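Holo prediction — protoporphyrin IX containing FE.
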Amino acid sequence: MTHAPIPGYHYDDPARPASPVSTGELEQLAAATLFTDADVAALKVAGEVLADQVEQILDVWYGFVGSHGHLLAYFSTPEGTPIGEYLGAVRRRFGQWITDTCTRPYDARWLAQQEEIALRHTAERKNATDGARSVPHVPLRYLIAFIHPITATMRPFLAAKGHPEAEVEAMHQAWFKAVTLQVALWSRPYANAAW
Ligand code: HEM
């Protein structure tokens, strides 16, 4: 099946610059979250379970952001008006990110994508992809805080296809580790030398 390209999504572009994070550093960081091959396997199943639920998951997450003015502000003009086109453009890449988190190998190319997503939350690259007239960056503290809602809200979707409880739990733990690992990587441009 072929899909229309997602504007601003360049995961497979061979010209994309490498991440400053090495695969060795990634391995050590993954180990620090207790991420193992069993999690890779659980995420693969999760990818199948979630494939036809991505829009509903995004509805939940966008509902959460949209119902908190101080969070919606990052998708809004500096004067506070939400930018519908910006919300919609990011939503498509956010949906693809769910799939990528479950199905892509965590290799040098994945690291390059993590660095790009990180930068798109910072003043260096936020708004540039969609030409949005929005506020300059998302504060790091909110990226860290979001690990919980992005994880907690996932459980009913992982359970929706009738897998045994132990398997749902394994998928949920793997998802939690994968999100934690990514936010740890995304903290790099905020922390620079301290990372
Ligand atoms: C972009 C995930 C936290 C606001 C994105 C994208 C993803 C993502 C996948 C699209 C990247 C791309 O362009 O391919 C996450 C995850 C988070 C998180 C997993 C935490 C666990 C936050 C928070 C906010 C936020 C707390 C603010 C409330 C944004 C904005 C963009 C974006 C405004 C668009 C950036 C741009 O202009 O390119 N996020 N995000 N994110 N996110 Fe987050």
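READOUT: The mean pLDDT is 97.
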